[in-house]
Amino acid sequence: MRRKLAAGNWKMNGLTASLSEIGTLAGDLPETPCEVLICPPATLIAAMAGAVHGTGIAVGGQDCHAAESGAHTGDISAAMLADAGASHVILGHSERRADHGETDADVAAKTEAAWKAGLTAVVCVGETEAQYRAGETLAVIRSQLAGSLPGGTTAANTVIAYEPVWAIGTGLVPQMDEIASVHGAIRAALSDRFGADMADGTRILYGGSVKPGNAAEIFAVANVDGALVGGASLKAADFGPIVAAASAA
Ligand code: PEP
Questions:
Q1: Class of 5-248 per CATH?
Q2: How far is the CA of 11 from the CAs of 169, 188, 204, 225, in angstroms?
Q3: Given Cys at both, which of 78, 173, 221, 227 links 64, Cβ 3.0 to 4.6 Å?
Q4: Domain edges within the chain
């Protein structure tokens, strides 16, 4: 049985004062919560790790370098994230792929670095609007998975996030049957490459304009094991109901 995961990606948002949202979120957690992960900017990881202590909420990074250390000004290694209190790291987010030219091979190298530091990798895949309109969604997703997931991928060391680029921050969401079709194809691709047991145990999150108003419907879709949430993860008033919906699903 896969436990649902509600993951928040704060992106480049949040100052020390934003940590108060964590106290509110933790205070409102359901009795039997789903797994909850918040990925704040790197500057807040250590403080957030302290703030979530004893709540069961996990903290993650939003990227890491593929190298363990060295002359990479401004970058952060996976070991540094772990040292600051992170247990997870988002890799291959479409904003990293677009803004920093990250390739599938880069994502695979970062994923291996994350595992080496003991982090769970949250590997993102998703088609652009043009690819969606051209009917290329499944081909794009299969190709990104093939290139971004190293051979050692397991249900324990990796979570997949399907995030259509055109749904991120736009308020647009695919039809539920479209989400079902992509998530089913992802699980089938995992099974083909890594075996049925690994595929059965791996969480596949949906991401893209998840809000309190649509979360329950999305979590009811086959093969959706939670969500990666951007804008609606910044405020406990929005993320709390999403966590509640995932916990109830
Ligand atoms: C994201 O960036 O991972 C995301 C899903 O953003 P939003 O929820 O704001 O669409």
A1: alpha beta
A2: 12, 30, 20, 22
A3: 78
A4: 5-248
- Return the pLDDT at 1: 79
pLDDT tens string 179-191? 999 999 999 999 9
CA of 209 to the centre of ligand 1 (A): 6
Q: Identify which of 210, 211, 233, 239 to mutate to test ligand 1's pocket (most ligand atoms within 8 A of the CB).
A: 210
Distance 121 CA to ligand 1 centre (A): 17
pTM, entire model: 0.97
Q: pLDDT tens, 85-139?
A: 999 999 999 999 999 999 999 999 999 999 999 999 999 999 999 999 999 999 9
95 CA: nearest ligand 1 atom: 2
